[in-house]
Amino acid sequence: MSRNSLPSKGMLIYFGVCTLAMVWPGALIANRIEPMILGLPFFIFWYVAWVFVLFVGLVIAYRQEAGEEVDDE
């Protein structure tokens, strides 16, 4: 993938789903205190879990792009 090209359609969908889960309607689904998970109210745990999922997606996207750059050289 060249530097100026867009990410793949799958990655755009992945990050779109993650964003919606953190904004709307995800916030409505998780908007409660009980159950407590790892000592956190469910609402806070919901956001921490999605931030971790986004991090994993960014690592995968970075490795795919870095691998393609090595192949191009």
UniProtKB/TrEMBL annotation:
Transmembrane annotation, as ranges: 12-30, 36-62
Keywords: Membrane, Transmembrane, Transmembrane helix
Domain of life from the UniProt record: Bacteria
InterPro entries: DUF3311
Protein name, as recorded: DUF3311 domain-containing protein
